[in-house]
Amino acid sequence: MSSLATAARRQLSQHGPALALAALLATSGTIHLVKPGVFRPLIPRSLGDPDPWVLGSGVAELACAGALAVPATRQVGGLASAALLVGVFPGNVTMAVRSRPDARSWAGKPAVAWARLPLQVPLVAWALAVARRAR
């Protein structure tokens, strides 16, 4: 194997998980800002107007993605991402409870809304693993 291929494999092994999580959060954050209506139903009514929460969480996801992408801020980015993923979990529960088969948004369909709940666990674990590895 060439030294270039070895170096590329080492870089992918070292940075790949963090960059993949950054891409996931950047995509979600962008959707929050471009199509906020998808996420409005996730906000518990007790929090009032959903728009500031949707936009704020989108900005937070983009900030976490940026921190994960830079090796110098990766540990903080991983910890912040884990905290964000835990923090939005009540919204996912709200969405699942409110889900309806006739929902206009794909996120409001029961199968999608309920399937999202257990997916938070590996996402939080992934973020924590990235933070640990960045030390």
UniProtKB/TrEMBL annotation:
Cited InterPro entries: DoxX
Intracellular or extracellular location(s): Membrane
The entry's keywords: Membrane, Transmembrane, Transmembrane helix
The keyword Transmembrane helix is assigned to this record: yes
Membrane topology term: Multi-pass membrane protein
Transmembrane annotation, as ranges: 79-99, 111-131
GO CC annotations on file: membrane
Official protein name in the record: DoxX family membrane protein
UniProt main location, coarse: membrane
Pfam family, one: DoxX_2
